[in-house]
Design a protein that fits this description.
CATH superfamily: GAF domain
Largest sheet: 6 strands, antiparallel
Radius of gyration: 15 Å
Shape: globular
Oligomer: single chain
Strand order of the largest sheet: 3-2-1-6-5-4
Order of helices and strands: HHHEEEHEEEH
Distance between the termini: 23 Å
Number of strands: 6
Bound molecules: methionine sulfoxide
Structural class: alpha+beta
CATH topology: Beta-Lactamase
Length: 163
Amino acid sequence: MNSLLNMAELSVAKSTKNYSLLHQEISALIEGENNMFANIGNILAAIKFRMNWFWVGLYKVEKEELVLFMFQGPHACTRIKKGKGVCGTAWQENRAIIVEDVEKFDGHIACNSNSKSEIVIPIKDKNGAITYVLDIDSTELNTFTEIDAIELNKITAIIETLI
Ligand code: SME
C-alpha cells in the first residue's frame, strides 16, 4: 500500500477531490481482508480523510426506519423514518440525492449545524432492495456534483459486496 501513497500524491490530494487516489487507497485497504467491520470502517475513514469531508457514514434499513450504522465524524441522529430527511427520501424514492444547500431541502434533518451540503446514495442487496444508505456531509455549500455521485457509486458498489 505504501507505494501508492508517495508525498507528491498526498499533497495533491489535500487540495483536490482525488478520486483516483481514493479508489486505489480503498482497494489496498480491503485487499486480502474479509472482516466486514474492519473493511467498512477503513472505507469510511478513507473517504472522510482523503476528501476532508465533515461526516461520512452508513444508515441501515431496519423495518420502516434507517438506523445509524458505522460512521466517521461527530455523533449523529440515530433513527430516521422512511421518507424523512435527505436519507429517508433517498431510500423512499430509490435514488441518489445531492443537496447543494441543506437549508433549501424541505425536511432536511440537521444532526449538526455545521453540515451545509450533502449527498446520499442508496446501497442495494443482490435483489435490488435498499439495505443501507451512504450519507456524506460537508461544511461547505455546493460540495457535491454528479461527478461525486458517479465516483461514490463505484465505492458503494464495493460496499455492497462487503455487507
Ligand atoms: N441530514 C441527514 C441526516 C443524517 S446526518 O446528516 C448525519 C438527513 O437529512 O437525512
